[in-house]
Amino acid sequence: MPRGLGALAVLGAAFLVLPPAALVWRAPWGSTLHRLADPATLEALRLSLVSASSATALSLVLGVPLAWFLARSAARRVRLLRALVTVPLVLPPVVGGVALLLLLGRRGLLGQYLDAWFGVQIPFTTLAVVLAEAFVAMPFLVVSVEGALRGLDRRFEDAAATLGAGAWYTARRVVLPAVAPGLAAGTALCFARALGEFGATITFAGSLPGTTRTMPLAIYLALQSDPAAAITLSLVLLVASVVVLVALRERWVPELRP
Amino acid sequence: MIAARLLVRRAGFTLDVDLTVGPGEVVAVLGPNGAGKTTVLRALAGLEAVDEGRIANDDTVWDDPATGAWVPPQGRGVGLVFSEHLLFARMSALENVSFGLRARRVDRRAARARSLEWLARLGLTELADRRPDELSRGQAQRVALARTLATRPRLLLLDEPLAALDATVRGEVRRHLADYLRGEHGGCLLVTHDPVDATLLANRAVVLEDGHVTQDGTPGELATAPRTAWTAKLLGVNVYRGTSDGARVSLDGGGTLTAASAPTGAVVLTVSPASVAVHRDRPAGSPRNVWPVTVTAVQQTGHTVRLTLEGTPPISADLTPGAVAELGLAAGAHAWASVKANEVRAEAR
C-alpha cells in the first residue's frame, strides 16, 4: 500500500464509524425506555415493521420469479429489461415517489382507473407506504437472487429432471436450497432498505400519523420539535440495522465471518 | 428397446447418429472429445431436443419434431450419471438416493426403505447420514449411482462415470456397476474414454467421430479390426482379466503376464500394442514376458500395421510397415511376442 494512503484510509473509516458513534454517545439513555413507551413512537415503530415486512414479502413474491426469469434468459431484450428493473437501485427515492404518484396517484396513468372503476385510492394509505418501500427495496433482492441463480450449475437441475422431478419439485428441493444464502442476504438487504425508506414514502404516501408516518418520517419530524425523541428513534433504527447486519454476517455471508 | 435417430445441428457441428439399445444391452459410446457423445446422452435424456429424427422407447415416442411428440426428461424414466457426482449438497446420502422416489410420490417410509436397500447394495449403509462434502469422491460417485439406480431407469445413461475417480477407487465403482449391469436392466449407454470400461462393461461399442458413427461392433471386433486411426489407438489396447499374486498375474483366458507393480487379487491388465515387440526367434535379454505366437491378421491403418497374434495370451501389436516387411510377418507366420513388465499396467477390478 503506498505511503499516505494509510492516513486517508483512517480518515475514511472515521467518517463511516464516527456518526453512528456520536448517535450512541449523545443518546438520552436515562429516558430512552420511557420515550420508547410513548404511543406515537410505538405507533411509528409498529407501522415501520408492518410495512417493511409487507414490502419484503411483496418483493419475495414478485422479485424471486423476476430474478429467475432474468437469470435464465439470454435474450437481448432481457438484458434491457434487467437494466430497467434495476433503475430504482440508483434512482433518487424522492423521484421514485413522484413516479409512483404519476402511475398510481388519483390522476395517475393507472390510478385514475382504479379510482373511477373501483373507488380505490392508493396515495396516502399504508398500502402506498408498502408500495413505495417495495419499489425502492425490491431491486436489492432481485440482484442478489439473480446472481445466486446465475452461479448455479445447471446440471443439478438436469440431474433432478432425469431422476423424475418436475420443474416445481426441482425448484423447491434443489434450486431454492442452493440459492438460500443469496436469497437470505437479498431478503435482509431488502428489509433493511425498506425499513429506512424515506423519500419515496413521504412523496407518495405523505406523513399521516398511524397510517403512513413510519420511523424515518417520525425521526425527521421529531428532530424539529423534540431532538431527544429523534435521537431515541434513530437509536431504534440503528439497532435494527445492526441486527440485520449481524444476521447477514453470521449466517449468510461466510466471507465476512471472523 | 430404445431406437433413436438423432440429428442435432450446432454452429460448425452436426450430430447424425442412428442408435438402438435393447433391454439388458450395454452399449459403449467411444470417441474423441467434441465428437458429440454428451449430446447423444442429453438428447436421449430429454435435456436437449433433436432438430430432426425420432427417439422412441418401444411404442412410446419421446421426441419427434416432425409430429411434435415430446416427453420431458422426468417422464422418460431415464437415469443419467455424470462424471461428477452432482449430489445435492444440502441433502444426506440417504435423502439424495430418496430424491427420485419422493419426486415420483413414493411415500416417505417406502422411499426410505428402498433407498437404504440401494445404499446397502453399493456398500454405503454406514454413510447414509453423511452430506456429500463428507464423502470421498469414490463414495460420492457410488451414492450418485445408487440415486439413479433407485429410480429403476428403463435406460441408464452413464457419462464417463469413472473418469473423475483415481485408479484405486475406479475398480471398486466399476465392480458395482458391473454387478448391476449383469442383472436384469432396461439397457445402458456408457460414454467412456477408457477401453477397459468398454471391454469389461459393454457388449457392444459404437465409435462416434465428428458427429457420425464410424464403427459399431463388439469391443473385441473394434480392437482387432479398427476402422479409423482413433479406434485403433484407443481400442487396440490389449485388455486382460486375471488374478494377481502381487507381480505375476494368471490370466482368466490362460497364460501369465508379469507386471512391474500390481495389486493382489482380481485385476485388469492393459498392454498398449505399441509396447509389444515381435521377433522371429526367441529373444534373449531382459523382457519378462516372452511367449510364442502365430500371426493371424495383418492390417494397416495409417502409418502403423496392426498384427493380431494368436497365443497364450493372444495379443495385438503395432509395428511400422518397414519392420513388418523386414521380419517377413504375414498371416500364418510363427513368431515371439515380448512385453516389458513395466509396460503392463495393472488395476484392481
Automatic annotation (TrEMBL), chain A:
PROSITE patterns with a match to the protein in the record: ABC_TM1 (PS50928)
Protein's UniProt name: Molybdenum transport system permease
Family: Belongs to the binding-protein-dependent transport system permease family. CysTW subfamily.
Domain ABC transmembrane type-1 as annotated: residue spans: 45-248
Keywords of the record: Cell membrane, Membrane, Molybdenum, Transmembrane, Transmembrane helix, Transport
Function, in words: Part of the binding-protein-dependent transport system for molybdenum; probably responsible for the translocation of the substrate across the membrane.
Segments crossing the lipid bilayer: 50-71, 83-104, 124-145, 182-208, 228-248
Places the protein is found: Cell membrane
Main localization (coarse): membrane
Membrane-protein topology: Multi-pass membrane protein
Automatic annotation (TrEMBL), chain B:
Presence of the UniProt keyword Hydrolase in the record: no
Start and end residues of each ABC transporter domain: 2-235
SMART domains found in the cross-reference section: AAA
GO-annotated molecular function: ATP binding
Keyword Nucleotide-binding in annotation: yes
Alphabetic keyword roster: ATP-binding, Molybdenum, Nucleotide-binding, Transport
Protein name: ABC transporter ATP-binding protein
Gene3D superfamilies according to UniProt: 2.40.50.100, P-loop containing nucleotide triphosphate hydrolases
InterPro entries in the cross-refs: AAA+_ATPase (IPR003593), ABC_SmlMolc_Importer (IPR050093), ABC_transporter-like_ATP-bd (IPR003439), Mo/tungstate-bd_C_term_dom (IPR008995), Mop_domain (IPR004606), P-loop_NTPase (IPR027417), Transp-assoc_OB_typ1 (IPR005116)
Segments forming domain Mop: 284-348
Pfam families according to UniProt: ABC_tran, TOBE
